[in-house]
User: Fold these one by one.
Assistant:
Number 1:
Amino acid sequence: MQRRSVLRPALPPLFLARSDCLALLGEAASAFALGETEAASGVRAALVRGADSAVSLLGKPGGFLDNPQVKIPLPGALNRAASMLRAIGQGKQVDDLVNSMNRAAESAVPEAKPLLLNAVHAMSVEMP
């Protein structure tokens, strides 16, 4: 009798034996191992990209004012007084104050970008 060889499709890593998975993970870890310099460079690059993204989102008209997550409210006592001021017909002045604070923040963000980037480039990164 002749034996037939049956070709089996390769199984995805999910179905590999535990020892095979550990060996593959070890090889992948050593292949992708980063030195401290490369890791620090990656952290800095991510922070620079985050700063660019934040400036493009917040440093434009409506960046603060139209985003409830970052909109700057009136501080403490002024916020408590705002309802009283609205009750006596001063609501427009309250809204103007909130608008001007948020517009000031929107115009300040692009000005702060060089300072933020300098801090990112000057920072030290320590690996645990």
Number 2:
Amino acid sequence: MVTMMGACFGIEMLLSKPLIGEIVTGFIPRLDSGSLYIAIGILGATVMPHNLYLHSALVQTRLVEQTEQGKRKHANLISLIR
């Protein structure tokens, strides 16, 4: 599947005939006023969804067993999210 995706990408590149100079300049980092917002957006798009998923799974309301072992498990769970 990855090979097919790569092949399709290569075909699209050949069909669109991009300017090689423009592609190369796209790999050079720019330090202008918008760069910080782009970097934050990329970081937020990759990190935050995982963080939200993890915390939403951990903080769901659960019935806590009223035994010593059940209370310990609950305390360990709470300590993970703090």
Number 3:
Amino acid sequence: MIDTENLVLRQMLPGDNTKKLSLGNEAHTPLKIFLQKNALAFHQAEIAKTFVLVEHPDTPSSVWGYITLMSSEITLNEGQKPREPFAVSRYEAFPAIKIARLAIDKTLQGKQFGTRCLNWCISHVKLAIMPHVGCRFLAVDAKSGSIEFYQKSGFVLLDTEANRSDEHPLMFFDLFHQ
């Protein structure tokens, strides 16, 4: 039984049990494979940082969900670029943090844990990254079934024909105006 009241997000640790995570949908198998085979190595090599949803904040624990973040950039079309004159005229691409992966165990899906992880991510970027490094946006390549989830949290679909028809369309969240 999961103690859902005491679940916390923390950086992944060696020894975290990633085997029990069940996402309930075969299309999400790559999310589980990444967590089991690559997340810790990427984390330790400073490629992408994975934060895991666990019951024990200080010791290896069973993972009930996770979010992986990495540095990125985003190129917006003219109608979606920042409106501040200094920003628009100088840059084609803007600094962003990419949500590389977000997954919640099937027993916790529909109980706001995905939203809690996303809200934590927004706060984390605003408090821990933006004060030290230029970072205007959060970006995510959303699975088609996740677009509405991200839209409910304020993400916007990049408005291009190619992006709208992409299997994993780019969505973004403007941290500066939130």
